Amino acid sequence: MFFSRLVFASLTVFCLTAFSFEAAQLPNDEVEALRDIAKILGKRDWNFSVDPCSGELGWADLNPVEGQENAVKCNCSFSNDTICHVVSIILKAQNLQGTLPADLGRFPFLQEIDLTRNYLNGTIPPEWGSTQLVNISLMGNRLTGPIPKELGNISTLANITVEFNKLSGELPQELGNLSRIERMLLTSNNFTGQLPPTFAKLTTLQDFRIGDNQFIGQIPDFIQNWTNLEKLVIQGSGLSGPIPSGIRLLGSITDLRISDLSNGTEVPFPTLSNMKNLKTLILRSCNIVGQLPDFLGEMTKLKNLDLSFNKLTGDIPRTFSGAVKTDYIYLTGNMLTGVVPDWILQKGENVDLSYNNFTTHSSCQERTVNLFGSSSMNNVSTTVSCLRSNHCPKNFYSFHINCGGKEAVINGKTYEDDTDSGGPSRFYQSRTNWAFSSTGNFMDDDRPTDSFTWTNTAKPGTSALYTDARLSPISLTYYGFCMGNGNYTVSLHFAEIMFTDDNTYNSLGRRIFDIYIQGKRVQKDFNLGVEAGGAGKAVKNFAAIVTNQTLEIRFYWNGKGTTAIPSRGVYGPLISAISVNPDFVPPSENGSSISAGTVVGIVVAVVAIIFVVLGVLWWKGCLRRKDTMNQDLKGLDLQTGSFTLKQIKAATNNFDPANKIGEGGFGPVFKGLLSDGTIIAVKQLSSKSKQGNREFVNEIGMISALQHPHLVKLYGCCIEGNQLLLVYEYMENNSLARALFGPEEHQLNLDWSTRHKICVGIARGLAFLHEESRLKIVHRDIKATNVLLDKYLNSKISDFGLAKLDEEENTHISTRVAGTFGYMAPEYAMRGYLTDKADVYSFGIVALEIVSGRCNTSNRSNMKEECFYLLDWACVLKEKGNLLELVDPKLGKNYNKEQVMTMINVALLCTNVSPVVRPAMSSVVSMLEGKASVQNLALDTSVSNDEMRIKAMRKHFQDSIEHSTSESLTQSMALDGPWTGSSTSAKDLYPISLGSDYWESRN
């Protein structure tokens, strides 16, 4: 196999180096190449006072720690052992923070580049395609962009490992030309599209992994060609079933993992009888129906079997007893029937049969066999038979658990001890009214035994709730039993305590899982690190209805996220604490001793008082406003957490004016600090606002349904009395407008790569809104102030108060045009004709601003003055062939000319007067990423028609300005500068004030 040959070659090279360095030396050109690479990678400890092939410490790792190898290896057998050449550069876990060096061709004999687990960013250089590399390993970095098609030219390449990065785009067809490839590891990136049909030629493949991506289409039939395959991993990849029947031809495979297929098509159990060497078989959440096949019992080498969360039926066959030597068996969440075989109960190993329909079994756990919910009695009983809820001494109305930790008292609430060691098929029941069930073992880790609880050692002094946590590889379920029926609030406390919050590879882990309450998925792809703002804390609140005295909270790993950072086997659900409280006043434990007459008298008096109070409130108009608010909220399905007014007041110091950071059409916006340390931005609906409710509620409804890395995150809302509040993530670097052309002291020095990243991020966010979201949404007010920047300068689109649902219609004629002059598409501004192409136009304007560093329209001291328009200037420069004059002078010559020209031409294409010509945002993303060419529309030398239309549009707005009141300006469209929102926008969160002579000083 590849690695055995590579190790042998490395040892040979090391020996050649060790015994020859006294006479042989590295040529000066390769020494200089190493100097350049050191600067690019950020490698600062190489000692160039000695020959890099000398075997000196720093160049040769004599006693390497596994996973932290740090060496430059040479072959010194050239020219009668007088010349050395670099053949391998291995820099693992060095926390390098640079980029990948492009010119590896300066090392003519280089075979291996291994930069595993660092903090490198940037893209994979296409220049690597001209090398003779055998091994490329870039696992665990921050790399972005597509895999260059040029890598398909490396005829010698045997291994490409790019797992756990942020690479994107479709896999290039050219990779199908890698005639010697043995390992292709692509897990945990953002790859899209289908697997290229050229991959059918990769018959030398032995290890292929594509989990945690966004591929589309079915698992391709051509995998049957990979007859040398030993390991295949397709978990949470985006691909759909069925599993191809040709998979039976892969007789050499020892490790097969397929899970979480994207469609719901039911398929029979695949024929795998030819796979005699299987050691690991995972077919989880694959919609497999039918009975367990007999051939599973004939797989004598099988150690791990996971068929959980399918629709398997029937008895466990007798032949299945051949699996008695299997270490782990997971049949959780199926519909198996019959009697649980004695050999399973006596096996003494880890078996999980929970959630099936076996004949009644009174125990929830027997030895290491999890039998919770496994009985057919569950279908006719309102409770799980093995729980004590069948014999409840009383009803409980709350419970609080310090998951994985000892008992702790927080804010007067006692969080119970949860220090049970857990296990791969473990059910545990507390002494009070809760229990947990854990399924799965951590695979591929180096630990002799799995740990299902974890202690935070990185941040001493952390709150007791966030010091410890419980974790699970697949599924972790908490239960509350003997609960009084009614409505409850479930508060889930999360803290990432296994990743760091620094600039090292230890911070690059991504923990992603699904959350279920009462069997309903309430959060898909919950990204703990993102929600917690890195290695911080997050609290999510959910509503739950208890009808059968049992509350179920489940966390499920859906194959997403990293699995090997900071080390292999780190993944799966993690929970720090659970708090469940009633939304009602629980009845007294001792009952009531008040007489019936007294009760009637109290009721009559209370009703009378209520009528008097309601009358007064109605007379003062309070209830009428509340009725309006309730009407606005009717039918709204919020997908967010909820906050109490008390929490918001505490976070903002009772809306202290010192915390006020903006004022918009809805009212003030405040910066706040939650009790767990999370910084938030709170939009408060003003009691004087008469136009806010409809748009504000519209914003809640839509943002709550949207989750995307390039959309501003809505943490939750507060709807209490006449208060309507939105709680957003706080964006540390303010808005794009302030970064580019705000007051000088607030501007950011954005280099070209950052600007390009920001622009691509905006495009991805819009592509999601237009094409990928379940809802089809037109934003209507894309502009630089509505693009916010987080602490890593990632762009996120804000302000959905003006967003309009497309509702399966092609166009809209809007009688209420809302947007910002200078960014509005002509057809929308003039005729109210609204499609997603209006957003495309606005994006084009923003792209020009990013390139030029200046605003689309100049600031005006007098509304009747002639305005400067960036778009006009760009069109003139295009016609003259001088588009590079548009580039921000701050960049100097430090920019990628090809990317700049692409971005400008894409912007001009997006701002075409005809909406038909403008591309879809998904096409814009492809063009900006260099995966598609830009349509080159020749400018018409007689542009009178366009000019007339644009002049008419400008006159339309000028007239509107002169005849509109300030109130109407606030309510409909922002016309006093591109940094003024027409509703609560980024300006409300991060106000911008530019001097009237700002642009004049730049010219």
TrEMBL record:
Protein location: Membrane
Enzyme Commission code(s) on record: 2.7.11.1
Cross-referenced PANTHER family: LEUCINE-RICH REPEAT-CONTAINING PROTEIN DDB_G0281931-RELATED, PROTEIN KINASE DOMAIN-CONTAINING PROTEIN
TM regions (residue ranges): 594-619
Identification of the protein by name: non-specific serine/threonine protein kinase
PROSITE patterns cross-referenced by the UniProt entry: PROTEIN_KINASE_DOM, PROTEIN_KINASE_ST
An MF annotation (GO) of this entry: ATP binding
Family matches, as SMART domains: S_TKc
Protein's membrane topology: Single-pass type I membrane protein
Highest taxon in the source lineage: Eukaryota
Residues of the Protein kinase domain: 655-934
Coiled coil: none
Main location (coarse class): membrane
A Pfam family that the UniProt record links to this protein: Malectin
Signal peptide residues on this chain, from the entry's feature table: 1-18
InterPro entries named among the record's database cross-references: Kinase-like_dom_sf, Leu-rich_rpt, LRR_dom_sf, LRR_Rcpt-Like_S/T_Kinase, Malectin_dom, Prot_kinase_dom, Ser-Thr/Tyr_kinase_cat_dom, Ser/Thr_kinase_AS
GO CC annotation: membrane
Catalytic activity: L-seryl-[protein] + ATP = O-phospho-L-seryl-[protein] + ADP + H(+); L-threonyl-[protein] + ATP = O-phospho-L-threonyl-[protein] + ADP + H(+)
Keywords: ATP-binding, Glycoprotein, Kinase, Leucine-rich repeat, Membrane, Nucleotide-binding, Phosphoprotein, Receptor, Repeat, Serine/threonine-protein kinase, Signal, Transferase, Transmembrane, Transmembrane helix
